[in-house]
From TrEMBL:
Highest taxon of source: Bacteria
Alphabetized NCBIfam families for the sequence: cas_Csd2, cas_CT1132
Pfam families per the UniProt record, alphabetical: Cas_Cas7
Biological processes annotated in GO: maintenance of CRISPR repeat elements
Organism: Treponema saccharophilum DSM 2985
InterPro entries: Cas7_Csh2/Csh2, CRISPR-assoc_prot_Cas7/Csd2
Protein name (Swiss-Prot/TrEMBL): CRISPR-associated protein, Csd2 family
Length: 288
């Protein structure tokens, strides 16, 4: 695999229609909203989950593309299994030390795409140290304030005979569903070749990341999330590992303007441009 030698910064735009892009469990699963500005929020953890899900589905059992943080996984067991494969006597009680930690860390990076991409804390079990990933994402924020709607829903069934008797045979139960009518969100991302060299994150892995960012919502549809779609991915490719310009200066070249209906109810109500030129392609790579 080719070594990553250039720095990358990117801007990701995605939208949601009639769905909840990222519910807050501390607020009854309401969509996350900045209380001061009214702008919607989608956490970086939520976006990483979607990237992981895409890679897990698209790559399947392909070597080197397993996912460490997957649903219902037992993380310490994954660490223990790596040490068994490497022939090292280490587990949660007999923790690895010294060179064995480095060997275990390298083994975890080689096997798991999300570890060599985002990093991970691997010191909870047999101890494979900590990994700082080369790819980092910010929270996504809606470009304009959003409103969360509450909908009453009815289920024409109950879960038990006892509940049916209490309902008098009506068997209807009420619930709530929360959605955002429409919101266009923007997130920023960074790819560091310095950290990539320590995790083994390659140019091939980078291509998988770009594919995931453009297609991750296509494999993650659900009634709760409504219609979510990646709209634009603008990638700034530096010519060196250190980079040629500050990320903030590059991000300011990408503008989003409200040019259609108010309030917005579709992506066509916005225009996204780079240096004043409207972008029509989902993915745009800018060589600096």
């Amino acid at each position: 695999m080719a070594k990553l030698e250039k720095r990358y910064d990117f801007v990701l735009y995605f939208d949601v229609k009639d769905g909840n892009p990222n519910g807050d469990p501390d607020a009854g699963n309401l969509p996350r909203i900045d209380a001061e500005t009214g702008n919607g929020i989608v956490t970086d953890v939520c976006l990483k989950r979607k990237i992981r899900n895409y890679v897990q589905i698209s790559k399947g059992a392909e070597a080197g593309y397993d996912i460490f943080v997957k649903e219902k996984a037992v993380l310490n067991k994954e660490i223990d299994d790596i040490y068994k494969e490497l022939g090292i006597n280490a587990d949660s009680k007999n923790k690895a030390k010294g060179a064995d930690v480095e060997k275990g860390r390298a083994g975890m990076c080689k096997k798991f795409f999300d570890i060599r991409t985002f990093g991970a804390v691997l010191s909870t079990g047999a101890n494979a140290g900590q990994v700082r990933g080369p790819v980092q994402l910010t929270f996504a924020r809606s470009v304009e304030p959003v409103v969360a709607l509450e909908h009453s829903i009815t289920r024409m069934a109950v879960t038990s005979e006892e509940e049916s008797e209490k309902q008098g045979g009506d068997n209807r139960t009420m619930g709530r569903k929360y959605t955002i009518p429409y919101g266009l969100y923007k997130a920023y991302g960074f790819v560091s070749p310095h950290f990539a060299s320590s995790t083994g994150f390659s140019t091939e892995d980078l291509d998988v990341l770009w594919d995931a960012l453009t297609q991750m919502f296509e494999l993650d549809h659900s009634a709760a999330r409504g219609l979510m779609t990646t709209r634009r991915l603008v990638i700034f490719e530096h010519q060196t590992a250190l980079g040629t310009k500050p990320a903030d200066e590059l991000f300011n070249r990408v503008k989003c303007e409200h040019t259609g209906n108010v309030p917005a109810r579709d992506f066509s109500d916005y225009t996204i441009s780079l240096d004043g030129n409207p972008l029509s392609e989902i993915k745009t790579v800018v060589a600096l």
